[in-house]
Amino acid sequence: AQSVTQLGSHVSVSEGALVLLRCNYSSSVPPYLFWYVQYPNQGLQLLLKYTTGATLVKGINGFEAEFKKSETSFHLTKPSAHMSDAAEYFCAVSEDTGRRALTFGSGTRLQVQP
Amino acid sequence: DAGVTQSPTHLIKTRGQQVTLRCSPKSGHDTVSWYQQALGQGPQFIFQYYEEEERQRGNFPDRFSGHQFPNYSSELNVNALLLGDSALYLCASSLDSGLGTWDEQFFGPGTRLTVL
User: A86, A23 in Cβ contact below 8 A?
Assistant: First the structure.
């Protein structure tokens, strides 16, 4: 069975500071990994995905994540936080293609202080 | 393109009642998945519909059922509502491109169900 652990339910950074949101996964087969963002009263929006190939993936809004198989991690980073980055972030894993079920972590709420 | 739409936006029911939630997929999409997101939690997969049939199901009781119509829209039905069914119900649509491909799931804004 697959699972996702997101360390830190709340993360607070200053505007312009590095953003680091942690995600570890468990999967019995090579995983497909995703980061989604959820703004208040909105659905989930895909930030970036890892399926195959390059382990460092770049997404929208300046975010990127690195797949590290040896550490079973897929941490999300952004060099410089912006006020508009304040939202809930979810890491997800799928053991099949993305059209199959996604297993989500419990989420990390990012606060950006001025 | 309107994207994925869901109705109603909010719903209040009492224990024991039945509820139907509706989802219209993004134009051109043929696959609909439903997720339950309890307060403070990540979404949990309920089931996925493709070609009007349930293709995959998560760990939810039979009280949760669904349907997909020929126009690819979908309904989620929950019978005998429990307090614990209170959650945001998210619908996601995608286009099935075939085995070995990855199809992005586009999420709707959700229906907030409150069970009293």
Answer: no
pLDDT per position as a tens digit, B27-63: 999 999 999 999 989 999 999 999 999 998 999 999 9
Phi, psi (rounded to 5 degrees) for B44: -120, 135
Per-residue pLDDT band for A101 (boundaries 50, 70, 90) equals confident
Q: From chain B, pick out residues whose CB is under 8 angstroms from the CB of A105.
A: 42
Q: Which of B21, B33, B45 to mutate to test the interface with A (most CBs of A within 10 A)?
A: B45
Q: How far apart are CA A24 and CA A31, in angstroms?
A: 12
Listed in order, strand segments (DSSP E) in B5-115 are: 5-7, 10-13, 19-24, 31-37, 44-50, 53-57, 64-68, 74-78, 87-94, 106-107, 111-115
At residue A110, φ and ψ (nearest 5 deg) are -100, 125
3-state SS, residue B48:
strand
Q: Among residues B55, B94, B89, which one has the least CA distance to residue B72?
A: B94
Q: With an 8 Å Cβ cutoff, are A102 and B90 in contact?
A: no
Contact B32, B48 (CB under 8 A): yes
